[in-house]
Amino acid sequence: MRLISTVIAISLLTACSVKNPFTHGESPARPLHDSAPLTYPENLEATPDAIPRIEPKSRGGNRKAYEVFGKTYYVMDSSEGFVQRGKASWYGTKFHGNKTANGETYNMYTMTAAHKTLPIPTYVEVKNLDNGKTIVVRVNDRGPFHQGRIIDLSYAAATKLGTLKSGTSNVEIRVINPRTEKKKSPPTAPKTLIKETLPSPKALTNTSNLFIQVGAFTSLDNATKVKKHLTHTLNLPANIQPNSTQSDALFLVLTGPYNNVQAADEAKLKLQKQGYSKIIYTTK
Predict the structure, then answer these.
(1) 222 & 165 share domain
(2) N or C: which end of the chain has fewer CB within 10 A?
(3) Is 243 inside any structural domain?
(4) pTM for the full model?
(5) pLDDT digits (tens, 9 = 90+) for 72-84
(6) What's the CA gap between 173 and 179, in Å, rounded?
(7) Residue 244 pLDDT grade (very low, low, confident, very high; cuts 50, 70, 90)
(8) What span, in angstroms and rounded, lies between the C-alpha atoms of 239 and 163?
(9) Do β-strands 134-141 and 65-68 pair in parallel, antiparallel, or remain unpaired?
(10) What is the Cα–Cα distance from 241 to 250, expressed in whole angstroms?
(11) What is the structure's pLDDT at 12?
């Protein structure tokens, strides 16, 4: 049995010495073994899920069939209704900055993943059956090619799912169809919680203290998550302002200030693309 294991190990090392266009990129400048970054990024667990959107199949990474380590894999024509259970693993510094199967650059701090046969790109909901956590990732790469593993998560995705400590997790993956399923978006203010008096257009034009209210929350934790998304992902200035003028205490998430309406409109467009719909202009 040990002899067989040794032969397999030698075969894998030999195979990895040649760059395969359908697997994680290899580079002589990269470490021999994959690992996490030396510095743990702040608030990585709060990385927002990938937001499913309609995309055409990429020109790269979608050949009908390809071979790795002597085994042939057949890429699915359609992922509709696809559900699979198995183990999830992750990949990090060794491949960070290399090309993915579809030609994009792998960024271990984004919510992406690799799968052997799903069309690229595909949006997948991944549920950790060990701890109940769920994430959404965008498949843009090929792998993993280890026995029993069905999906390779980015470092950020593995962190959020709770997969880093053990290296693998028992998961269920389910394909999300953006055409038929409501997109997951950041929490927004309930319709009846906030009643704002909107500034007049004239006041907005002349103000130098203009803010955008992104949401109002009864939970400080939810407000903090949205604030982190605004500052870390969208690079927008943001703050949390308690609002105790109503019977129930609320936490308002604001971005700004903006010197003019044009600057605020640019920020508003960026927010809307991320799924924020309950946006209010206000002066504070």
Answers:
(1) no
(2) N
(3) yes
(4) 0.56
(5) 999 999 998 999 9
(6) 18
(7) low
(8) 31
(9) unpaired
(10) 8
(11) 37
Residue 12 lies in a domain: no
Taking the CB of residue 23, how many other CB atoms lie within 10 A of it? 23
CB 228 within 8 A of CB 46: yes
Token duo for residue 132: 């109940």
- pLDDT over 80 at 67, yes or no: yes
Among 10-24, 227-241, 257-271, which is the least confidently predicted range?
10-24
Question: Do 272 and 279 touch, CB atoms closer than 8 A?
Answer: yes
When pLDDT is averaged across residues 43-67 and rounded to a whole number, the result is 90
Residues 135, 228, single domain; the answer is no
| CATH number for position 97 | 2.40.40.10
> Strand, helix or coil at 157?
helix
| Domain count within the chain | 2
β-pairing verdict for 280-283 and 134-141 = unpaired
- Asked whether residue 186 is assigned to any structural domain, the reply reads no
Taking residue 245's Cβ as centre, other Cβ atoms within 10 Å add up to 7
User: Rounded to an integer, what distance in angstroms lies between the CA atom of residue 273 and that of residue 124?
Assistant: 20
Do residues 274 and 214 touch, judged by C-beta distance below 8 A?
Answer: no
Calculated CA dihedral for residues 63, 65, 66, 71, nearest 10 degrees: 160
The CB density around residue 21, as the number of other CB atoms within 10 Å, is 13
Query: CB count, 10 Å around CB of 137?
Result: 29
The H-assigned helical ranges of the chain are: 2-16, 155-161, 201-206, 220-228, 261-273
- What would the two tokens of residue 141 be? 């790469």
Evaluate whether residue 138 is within a structural domain: yes
| Type of residue numbered 136 | V
Helix (H) or strand (E) holding 173: strand 169-176
% of the chain beyond a pLDDT of 70? 73
158/153 Cα distance (integer angstroms)? 6
- Residues whose CB is less than 8 angstroms from the CB of residue 218 and which lie 6 or more positions away in sequence, other chains included: 193, 248, 249, 250, 251
Q: Could you tell me whether strands 134-141 and 112-114 are parallel, antiparallel, or unpaired per DSSP bridges?
A: parallel
